[in-house]
Amino acid sequence: MKRAEIVQRMMFDYDSMSEVEIRELCVNLPKKIIRWLGAHHPDNRTRKIFFRLTNITIGEGTVINQNFIVSDGYAPLLVIGKRVAISPNVTVICESNPNNSQLQQFEHVRDNLICAKNILIDDDSWIGSNVVMLPGITIGKCSIVGAGSVVTKDVLPRTIVAGVPAVKIREFKRKIKY
User: Among 169, 132, 168, which residue's Cα sits nearest to residue 147?
Assistant: First the structure.
C-alpha cells in the first residue's frame, strides 16, 4: 500500500481500526508523517497513538487537542502524565537549534541556546490554547498554564501561571484526593 493510501485510510477509516492495525500501518511511514498525523488527526485516541509512536510518553486519560506541535527530533524528551488536558495549538520545544543558520558559529548561541532537554507535564495539569513551552521545564501536578503563555521555567504543583513569560497567578492550597 502506498503512503498516501495509508494516510488516507488512517484519516478517514480510523474509527473502524484497532490500535494494533494503526501501529502496523505506521511501520511503513516516516516519523515526520506520523507526527503530522498526530498533530492534525480529528480523533484524540488516534492522535495519542501517533504521538506515542514518535517517542512521546502519554499517561492514561490524557486529552491532546489538534495542532499539538512538538520539537524533539523524535527523541524521548517529552513525558505527559495522566489526565492532562492539552488545548489546541500548543507548542512544546524540547530541542532547539538554528538548523542550517550560521548563527551556530556564535559562541553564545552554541553554548546557551542550542539544546535538547526533557519536558515533563505532570498529572492532572491543564495547558491552555496557544501555550509555548521552552526546553527543560516541568509543569507540576494539578497546575494550569493560561492560554497564550510562554513557559520559560518550572511551574510548581497546584499553581496557575499565565503571561509572557508565564508568572504565578495563584496557588491551590487544597490537594486533590485520589
Answer: 132
Q: What is the dihedral of CA 58, 60, 62, 63, to 10 degrees?
A: 100
Check residue 31 and give its pLDDT.
Answer: 96
The kind and range of the H/E element at 49 are helix 44-53
The rounded distance, in Å, linking the Cα atoms of 23 and 42 is 17
Domain that holds residue 20: 1-54
**String of b and e for 46-77 (b: at least 16 CB within 10 Å)?**
bbbbbbebbbbebbeebebebebebebebeeb
Ranges of residues in the chain with a pLDDT under 70 are 176-178
Can you give the pLDDT at residue 84?
98
pLDDT of residue 178: 62
Assess whether 35 and 101 both reside in one domain.
no
Q: In the 8-state DSSP scheme, what is residue 155?
A: B
Q: Which pLDDT score, from 0 to 100, does residue 108 have?
A: 92
Do residues 61 and 45 touch, judged by C-beta distance below 8 A? Answer: no
**Total structural domains within the chain:** 2
Q: How far apart are CA 38 and CA 26, in angstroms?
A: 12
